[in-house]
Amino acid sequence: MSELKKELIQEAGSYVEERLQRIHAAIDDLKAALKLETKCSMGDKYETGRAMLHLEFEKLSGQLEQYGKLKKTLNSIPAKAQEKVGFGSLVKTSGANYFIAIPAGELKTNSGKFYAVGANSPVAIALKDKRAGEDFTLNGQTHTILSVE
Fold first, then answer.
1. Which CATH number describes the domain made up of 3-75?
2. What are the two backbone dihedrals, phi and then psi, of residue 70, each rounded to the nearest 5 degrees?
């Protein structure tokens, strides 16, 4: 596995970990708010407040599950270099550089800026199975693939 790929996996992993920490902090805040919620003479207000907290808790639990899956996806990136663009590829193009892995947005490395995109994203689909030197079209613009790792 190239040093650049290792660096990108680490950056994407940091992105996921940061999101997981935020979600855990929000869940802890909700648990504290749920404990503070006291029953008052207005029963409907109490029940509505608790219901809203539970809905938020369910939403955060779903996000926690999604980021857990992204973490597993990162751990399954193939180590060997690839000739064709696919999952785990580093693709340098005439327009931008891409890391086909998880949707983590812009990742900055010593080698430049890469956009981490999911394998089912429009750009990944446009690049799929192409090789260095081939052209691809995205949003009506044609770009050339400079290299694939």
1. 1.10.287
2. -60, -40
- The DSSP string of 71-84 is HHHHHT---S--SS
Q: What letter represents residue 64's amino acid?
A: L
> Count H helices, E strands: the chain?
3, 6
In the three-class reduction of DSSP (H, G, I as helix; E, B as strand; rest coil), residue 125 is classed as helix
SS3 category, 23: helix
Least confident interval from 41-45, 83-87, 133-137, 145-149:
41-45
- Within the chain, all domains assigned CATH 1.10.287 are found at 3-75
The answer to whether the CB of 37 falls within 8 A of the CB of 49 is: yes
Tell me the helix, strand and coil percentages in the chain, rounded to 5. Answer: 50, 20, 30
Within 10 angstroms of residue 149's Cβ, the number of other Cβ atoms is 19
Residue 132, helix vs strand vs coil: coil
What would the pLDDT profile of 46-83 be if each residue is shown by its tens digit?
577 778 888 999 999 999 999 999 999 999 998 888 89
At residue 39, the pLDDT reads 52
pTM confidence score = 0.83
